[in-house]
Backbone:
């Protein structure tokens, strides 16, 4: 699969047997990879009650090869052995797996903390009370608009009310510090203060992440991704709000709004962690370099057929490749390269841009130039979207009047002598 | 700090990494990086040594670096990764 990754062969294993120079910075150390991921995302199912327009895993239908309960427990056992201290569980909608609550308990009992992402559909008052009684469990409710109009436009009718109900149930049960997770779009980027107020109202923490052109997101990215002037506003807002707002380190491409010395970086790692400190296990046990890169080109192996997760993480050819020194390519000569490190690999790949060139949302404007050139969007390698639209499918069309018309058009057959006359 | 007895917090786990170790606090969910192997040995040795100075010496940290290590240890204490041992006994 390495055809698109232009760099040298891996120089070492990551299992600690090869000495590294000790004078490297932490970021440089991370770029060479770790013995186990810091941030592991595990999507438990591709099944989902919603059909969000920008779903990065193209979820909808359950995959018949989905890991069984026993296979999931074996993965958790392995994570415990590897000291992966917590996982981010997602989907699909993970809570509609019948064994979800069992697996949650199993993970916590095996020293693997859980943060799970949900649209809120199963966060009943009873479940909220259970969640409030556990340590080591964190809940993240997805919401992509501070108002129903903006949210339901991309997440589907009724999804705003579902999310708010879940937040109410959690707050009423005494669950502390839930997360409200927002994918920043052209439509909701003007609502950042309202999101913050919403989070404050429910004693929650706001988490903002970047819209990626991954999965079904590729279909709507052109319409939904923030405009350049909006990106600057977002950067300023993030700088002003600092560590109070989580970002999953997803906006490091905006760091180039700061000075070229990197001092304007946002809190966080500010590097692409794909295959180095992050990765994704999908519902059938496939391991991908990052949650936004569910594509054969970034498939490292499978936990069932390739000797387990540890084997894949430490030995896969793809991950060794990603941990080898990378060239900056076209970006290397840019004075801001040290700030943004060339941006997001998945964003480049799914917009058909070279991986060693600028990010499509490069704040220096190189992305727009690159997007204007010849490019071929990669075909998706998997799609679990529903075959027929369900009742929750968002309808991304809006009825409106043509702004240049002030009255109904005048028919050629109009008999009134005053037809078309505007006093 | 050098003459006080300290220990790693009970809810903290260390994971060895090529650069040192990753420390995770299951209580406050904070993740911290111990950026040098010597610092890992120091943190692991705290509980068995009468004071911080002995832990530093046992880990082979030269005396002129003690101040720098104390700064690092204070950072860890601020995140409750390590605590004074008397506090642990009282808890």
Residues:
């Amino acid at each position: 699969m390495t055809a698109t990754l232009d760099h040298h062969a891996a120089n070492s294993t990551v299992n600690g047997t090869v000495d590294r120079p000790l004078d490297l910075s932490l970021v440089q150390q991370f770029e060479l990879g770790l013995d186990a991921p810091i941030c592991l995302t595990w999507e438990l199912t591709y099944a989902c009650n919603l059909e969000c327009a920008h779903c990065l895993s193209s979820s909808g239908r359950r995959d018949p090869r989905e890991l069984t309960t026993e296979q999931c427990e074996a993965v958790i056992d392995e994570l415990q052995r590897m000291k992966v201290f917590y996982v981010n569980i997602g989907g699909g909608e993970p809570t509609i797996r019948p064994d979800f609550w069992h697996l949650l308990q199993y993970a916590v009992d095996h020293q693997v903390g859980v943060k799970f992402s949900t649209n809120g559909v199963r966060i009943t008052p009873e479940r909220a009370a259970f969640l409030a009684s556990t340590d080591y469990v964190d809940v993240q409710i997805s919401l992509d608009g501070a108002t129903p109009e903006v949210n339901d436009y991309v997440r589907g009718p009724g999804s705003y009310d579902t999310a708010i109900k879940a937040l109410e149930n959690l707050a009423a049960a005494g669950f502390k510090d839930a997360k409200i997770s927002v994918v920043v779009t052209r439509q909701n980027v003007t609502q950042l203060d309202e999101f913050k107020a919403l989070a404050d109202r429910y004693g929650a923490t706001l988490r903002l992440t970047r819209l990626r052109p991954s999965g079904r997101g590729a279909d709507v990215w052109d319409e939904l991704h923030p405009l350049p002037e909006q990106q600057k506003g977002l950067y300023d807002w993030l700088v002003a709000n600092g560590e109070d707002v989580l970002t999953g380190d997803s906006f490091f491409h905006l760091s180039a709004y700061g000075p070229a010395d990197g001092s304007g970086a946002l809190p966080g790692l500010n590097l692409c962690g794909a295959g180095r400190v992050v990765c994704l296990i999908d519902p059938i046990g496939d391991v991908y370099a990052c949650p936004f890169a569910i594509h054969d080109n970034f498939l490292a192996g499978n936990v069932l057929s390739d000797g387990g997760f540890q084997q894949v993480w430490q030995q896969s050819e793809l991950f060794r490749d990603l941990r080898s020194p990378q060239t900056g390519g076209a970006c290397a000569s840019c004075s801001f390269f040290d700030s943004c490190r060339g941006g997001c690999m998945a964003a480049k790949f799914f917009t058909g841009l070279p991986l060693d060139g600028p990010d499509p949302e490069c704040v220096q404007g190189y992305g727009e130039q690159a997007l204007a050139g010849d490019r071929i969007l990669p075909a998706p390698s998997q799609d679990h979207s529903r075959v027929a639209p369900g009742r929750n499918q968002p309808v991304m069309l809006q009825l409106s009047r043509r702004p240049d018309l002030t009255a109904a058009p005048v028919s050629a057959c109009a008999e009134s002598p005053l037809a078309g006359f505007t006093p | 700090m050098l003459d006080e007895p300290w220990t790693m917090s009970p809810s903290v786990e260390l994971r060895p990494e090529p650069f040192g170790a990753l420390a995770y606090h299951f209580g406050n969910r904070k993740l911290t990086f111990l950026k040098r192997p010597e610092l890992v040995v120091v943190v692991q040795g705290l509980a068995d040594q009468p004071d911080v100075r002995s832990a530093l010496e046992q880990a082979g940290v030269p005396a002129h670096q003690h101040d720098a290590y104390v700064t690092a240890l204070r950072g860890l204490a601020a995140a409750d990764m390590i605590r004074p041992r008397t506090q642990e006994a009282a808890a």
Summary: Chain A has 14 helices and nine strands.
